[in-house]
Design a protein that fits this description.
about 450 residues; alpha/beta; Rossmann fold; 3 domains; 8-stranded mixed β-sheet; 5-stranded antiparallel β-sheet; 23 strands; about 25% strand; globular
Length: about 450
């Protein structure tokens, strides 16, 4: 079989009884007898060359060297972008059959022209290109410093940050604590499916993010699909959101709170209260004070913190490991209203919790149930655990609790007194605590 098709071309592969359409991929050296095709569903399929009657080119693939000119319209508001990697900043590599990072802003923008319908992307920063599971607190700090510079530019109305999904809610929580005097929208967005797939969620997410970035919602928020349909997105508080599905387009859900808004490609419908651009929020969150001041980064962080999930029969001696490794704080994901094995269990946690806290280890509690609030006063075992000194964090999400604990313990002026640590962990800095759960 002879063909003038090249990897990246959109083709028909003719078999004896079936014709398949898709993007032609380059076969690995070890599989040169195989024809690889990426279907419209995003999945790859392979055929033996001897079974292929014809490969017909329907559309030539675009040149990798294609130049995209970024045009600006003075009638549109200016926003800035920070690109950090993730599926939203990846595309098909025809030679691999998988996805690679988009290595320039222009290569990102040419796939998302709708982003420019309402805004100018006036500034772009690419501090690094990483999957979110490869990030840690130093990356959060770097993003915060870049965000500070962009947000304090008077010509920039808001900021969009593209990010991988897996640990996105850790970054959104970190920025919620790190960015002080926030007076413009900070919008984190993502894509569950890469842009070469017909079902990609990237385009709607970016269109909605553009509207969020020029809105009056002066919050750190996550914007993404509200359902599996391409109809609207939610703007979700950065400290009250969690990834609850591995692959669905609406994987992120608000937990123990409400979204700030529904965002359609053409409009925003407000759902709940938020910090308003150029105004004090009436609840006066500390991170929103001094509205007229410039954004400042407070990204002090103690990395020696850990998240431990309580399970049946768990040995409390695991805490000795963290103490010996010089950890400063632990968040326990506790069962029910805030429970762990106590006196009736074969391995009670009571004695060990008292011991490590007396030695200076800060222990906080969050719920592993996801929804709801901790209340250790309902059952006697909860009261016993509370008496050891654990700080019960009410309805704070476990991931947010871990980030907040690292941030609080990073401040030398706060860690001198356990009561100050407790006070700060229970202070509502950025919607992480909700006194009214529905």
């Amino acid at each position: 079989m002879e063909s003038n098709a090249h990897p990246g071309d959109y083709v028909e592969v003719h078999l004896t009884k079936v014709i398949y359409e898709g993007i032609l991929l380059e076969s690995p050296e070890s599989e040169k007898a195989i024809v690889l095709l990426k279907l419209g569903s995003g999945y790859n399929i392979g055929f033996n060359k001897k079974d292929v009657l014809e490969i017909k080119v329907l559309k030539r693939g675009k040149s990798e060297k294609e130049i995209v000119e970024l045009k600006k319209d003075s009638s549109k508001p200016n926003i800035a972008m920070i690109i950090t990697g993730g599926t939203i900043a990846a595309r098909l590599n025809p030679k691999k059959g998988g996805v690679d990072w988009l290595d320039t802003p222009e290569s990102l923008f040419k796939f998302y022209p709708e982003l420019f319908e309402k805004v100018n992307v006036a500034k772009v920063e690419v501090p690094f290109m990483k999957a979110s599971e490869d990030m840690d607190f130093k990356d959060w700090q770097k993003i915060a410093r870049v965000a500070e510079k962009l947000l304090n530019d008077e010509n920039i109305k808001g900021l969009i940050i593209t990010h991988g999904t897996d640990f996105l809610h850790y970054t959104s929580a970190a920025l919620s604590f790190f960015l002080k005097n926030l007076n413009k929208p900070v919008v984190l967005t993502y894509s569950q499916r890469s842009i070469d797939r017909a079902s990609s969620d990237a385009n709607l997410n970016l269109q909605c993010s553009a509207l969020a970035a020029i809105s009056d919602i002066a919050e750190v928020m996550l914007v993404g699909h509200a359902s599996s349909n391409d109809d609207f997105c939610y703007a979700m508080p950065g400290t009250k959101v969690r990834k609850l599905h591995t692959s669905k387009r609406d994987a992120f859900k608000v937990v123990n709170a409400k979204p700030f808004a529904k965002i359609f490609p053409e409009k925003i419908e407000i759902i709940s209260e938020y910090r308003v651009r150029n105004k004090e929020h009436r609840s006066v969150y500390p991170q929103a004070r001094n509205v007229g001041a410039k954004v400042k980064v407070d990204s002090k962080f103690e990395e020696k913190v850990a998240l431990i999930k309580i399970y049946p029969g768990q040995d409390p001696d695991i805490l000795d490991y963290y103490f010996k490794k010089k950890y400063k704080g632990i968040v326990l994901e506790m069962s029910g209203l805030g429970h762990a094995p106590t006196k009736r269990a074969r391995k009670s946690w009571i004695k060990k919790l008292k011991e490590v806290q007396e030695k200076g280890l800060v222990v906080c509690a969050a719920a592993q149930t996801i929804y709801g609030r901790l209340n250790p006063l309902v059952y006697s075992n909860g009261r016993e655990l509370l008496e050891t000194g654990i700080i019960y964090l009410e309805d704070v999400l476990a991931e947010t609790a871990l980030v907040k604990l690292g941030w609080v313990l990073g401040h030398e002026e706060w860690v001198k007194d356990k009561e100050i640590i407790k006070e700060k962990m229970l202070e509502n800095f950025s919607h992480e605590l909700n006194s009214r759960l529905e």
